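Dock iron/sulfur cluster; give full complex structure.
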Amino acid sequence: MRLLFVGVSHRKGEKKMKYRKLGNTGLFVSEIAFGTIPVLQGSIPVLPDYFNLSEEEALLVMERAFSLGCNLYDTAIVPEYGDAEPKLGEFAKRIGRERIVISDKARFYDGNELYQAVYTSCENLGTYADLYFVHQVDAEHEEAVFQKGGGLDALTELKAEGKIRFAGLASHYYDILLRGAKDARVDVLQGSGNLLERGMLDRIRKEPLFLEKGLLINKVYAAGLLPKFFPVQTLIRFVLSYPISSALIGLGTVEQVQAAMAEPEKVKEPSLKELSFLEVLSVLGKSYTEAPISCDRCQCCSCPYGTDISTVFRQHHYFFLGKDHWALKKLALGIEESAERCRRCVEMPCLEQCPGRLRIPDEIKRVAKLVQQHRFYSGIKYSSPEKSIIS
Ligand code: SF4
Ligand code: SF4
């Protein structure tokens, strides 16, 4: 079956897509972008829900988004997002390449490796990528990306060759995004944030440097957890209240596309005041069996001994919000050691850094205790299973 693609087709009463400037690229992108993880086919255990769609099924979902005004589609190199990349390439071919903006990415940090990866991606797509991100940059890989001959230099070279139009940097870490915002080689940034994990968005709003770059925000549904508690329109509206270019939503069915891009709020719209962090925590807190940790992932804290504090607290949230096994597995990789370090820590610099004055070491010990309580029936292997962490 070949698809018959149509133009923007809103039905009466449907929400209309709006467009925003993508930094200084000269592009205007739909404020809701299509994330292609859910349309992939393959076995990618680390990824959240996806629907194992055939190519034709995937193209129909993408086409529905296009018909509602979506013009920005985000993917990643094979096999990171399974076969989503060639599916998007096929979609671009059928819809008309110039009618959409393709955003692609790969987790290669060294310049030579990223350069090769972009060539592979372009082959998979059958075309150039408009935006290409060096993906998931963290502290371990930061220098490899920014240094001479690193990932960003490779993207600059690929721009000159016409393989990509704009260079991007994607990270879950504020300090790395800020470094990208200061770097002339970077055109577009991709970060994460949502109603619960809003601290980074709040910091971005206060920093004018981010206005110079296009900014895409992913994890709007918090790995699919928040729609159980809030309407998707509320989640999207919240993220779009920040100075960003586009909210990136993973979409795998026509119904999901419709819910994100076409349906007006069905309930009385909550005001932003009603969506304050504490209000949100009190809604979510009903599914916790102990007090939620009131961390909004602002990342103002840092641990000189290596604990990724905000990620530990994120997994605590995710444990109670429905990703219990997944969160436990991640926490089990180092929570005992983190709790032990907190026990020995004298200066505790993190305490001064937290705007919310969280008792960070106490909370880390509480998370460690939770993990140990669940080790007996979770079947998860722990980094040092013989050691007791309950004190
Ligand atoms: S108290 Fe714990 S988290 Fe805070 S700085 Fe010390 S070791 Fe790191
Ligand atoms: S613990 Fe405090 S400083 Fe650290 S990320 Fe959470 S809210 Fe921010």
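Observed: Residues 360-378 form the longest helix (19 residues).
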